[in-house]
Design goal:
The N terminus is likely disordered. 47% of the residues are buried. The protein has 13 helices and 3 strands. The radius of gyration is 21 Å and the shape is globular. It has 346 residues and is mostly helical. It has a 3-stranded antiparallel β-sheet, with no helix packed on it.
C-alpha cells in the first residue's frame, strides 16, 4: 500500500495493488454519523411501545444476555420490524442512487420511472388472485422486473440515454397507475381493502421472514453497487467521455439497472411500495457528504435512517393509533419535492 499526493491536490490517494481510493473525510464523517444515528433510532424504536423496555435491557437482549421477557419483546416482536425497516430503507436508498446517477436527474428514482408502480401491479394481481403473503411478495418482485425490462427496452436506442429512460419511465408509471386503479375497482371489497392497505406501505407485522430475504439481497448486491459506482461517476460526465476512458458504458449501465431493479423489487416485496425514500435518500446523502454526485454507501445509510425514523414517528405521533409508514414518507417526500423544485427555480 502506498500513499501519494498529486500536485495541487491536498487530499492523498491510497493505493492497494491496482486499486486506488481518495479518502473523503467529510463523507466518512457523514457515514459514521449516520451509522450512530441509525443505531440510536433502532434502539429507541425497540425500547418504546405499549410496554417500555429500558435501553440497557434492550442492549443486553440484543447480545443475548437479557431477561426472558426482554428477549421475547426485543427478539420476537420489535427487532424484526426494525431490522426490516433498516434493510428496506438501505435497499431503496441504493436503488434511488443508482437511477439518479444513471439518469443524471434528481427525480430519476423508482417512484417516478415506473418500477414501484410495476411492483404494485404485481402485488395487486397476487392479492386479487387470492395469493398468500409470499405470493404478494413474489408478484411485487416479478412486476418490478417486468416493468424494468419493458422500460429499458423502450428506452434503448443505440444505448440508453438518461432523459429517454426518465421520459419512458414516466409514461409507464402513469399507465401502470391507471392499471392499478382499474384492478382495485374490479376487485371485491375484501381484496380491495387488502390491496389498498398493502399499497400504502407498512412495516407492521414484519418478522424475520421478511427481513432475511432483503438482507440477503443487500449483501449480494452491495458489492455489485460498489463495483459499478466508480464507472457510473465517469458515465455522468457523458457516454463519449466515459468510453474514451475505457469504460464499457452499456455493460456498466446494464449491471447497475439490474442491481437497482432487484433492490427496489425486494424492498417493495417486504414492505410494500413505500414512496419517496428512494427519491430523497440519495439527495440528502449527497448534501451530508458534500459529494458532487450520489454515493452508494451514504445513500444506503440515509435511506435506512430515514425509513426507520419515519416508522418510529408513525407509531408515536398519534399514539395509541398507528399510521402506516408510507403515509408519513409520502408527506415528508411531498414537502421535500416542493423544496427541491423551489431551490431549482432560484
Amino acid at each position: 500500500m502506498t500513499l501519494s499526493s498529486p500536485p495541487g491536490r491536498p487530499r492523498r490517494v491510497v493505493r492497494v495493488g491496482s486499486w486506488s481510493v481518495r479518502p473523503a473525510p467529510r463523507a466518512l464523517t457523514a457515514c459514521v454519523g449516520l451509522v450512530v444515528t441509525g443505531f440510536a433510532v433502532a434502539v429507541l424504536a425497540i425500547s418504546t411501545g405499549e410496554f417500555t423496555v429500558p435501553v440497557p435491557d434492550v442492549l443486553h437482549a440484543l447480545f443475548g444476555q437479557g431477561t426472558p421477557v426482554a428477549e421475547l419483546i426485543v427478539g420476537k416482536l420489535r427487532a424484526p420490524r426494525v431490522v426490516t425497516g433498516l434493510l428496506v430503507g438501505a435497499a431503496f436508498g441504493m436503488s434511488g442512487a443508482i437511477f439518479q446517477s444513471l439518469t443524471r436527474n434528481p427525480l430519476g428514482s423508482p417512484d417516478f420511472i415506473g418500477f414501484t408502480a410495476g411492483a404494485s401491479t404485481g402485488g395487486i394481481l397476487a392479492v386479487v388472485s387470492g395469493g398468500t403473503a409470499a405470493h404478494i411478495a413474489g408478484g411485487a418482485l416479478a412486476g418490478c422486473v417486468a416493468t424494468a425490462l419493458l422500460v429499458y427496452g423502450l428506452a434503448f436506442r443505440r444505448g440508453v440515454q438518461g432523459y429517454r429512460l426518465v421520459l419512458v419511465g414516466i409514461g409507464a408509471n402513469a399507465l401502470l397507475i391507471a392499471v392499478n386503479s382499474y384492478l382495485l375497482t374490479r376487485a371485491n371489497i375484501n381484496d380491495a381493502a387488502t390491496a389498498g392497505a398493502w399499497l400504502t406501505g407498512s412495516l407492521s407485522g414484519r418478522g424475520w421472514d421478511h427481513a432475511i430475504p432483503v438482507g440477503v439481497a443487500v449483501v449480494v448486491l452491495l458489492p455489485v453497487c460498489a463495483y459499478v459506482s466508480r464507472p457510473m461517476r465517469m458515465i455522468e460526465m457523458g457516454d463519449d467521455a466515459a468510453r474514451a476512458m475505457g469504460i464499457n458504458v452499456e455493460g456498466v449501465r446494464a449491471a447497475a439497472v439490474v442491481a437497482g431493479v432487484l433492490l427496489c423489487g425486494v424492498a417493495t416485496a417486504a414492505a410494500g411500495p413505500v414512496v419517496f425514500v428512494a427519491l430523497a435518500a440519495p439527495q440528502l446523502a449527497r448534501r451530508l457528504a458534500r459529494s458532487p454526485g450520489v454515493t452508494m454507501t451514504a445513500s444506503a445509510l440515509t435511506g435506512a435512517v430515514l425509513l426507520t425514523g419515519a416508522d418510529l414517528a408513525a407509531q408515536r405521533v398519534l399514539a395509541p393509533a398507528q399510521l402506516p409508514v408510507g403515509v408519513l414518507t409520502a408527506a415528508i417526500g411531498g414537502v421535500y419535492l416542493a423544496l427541491l423544485l423551489r431551490k431549482d427555480r432560484h
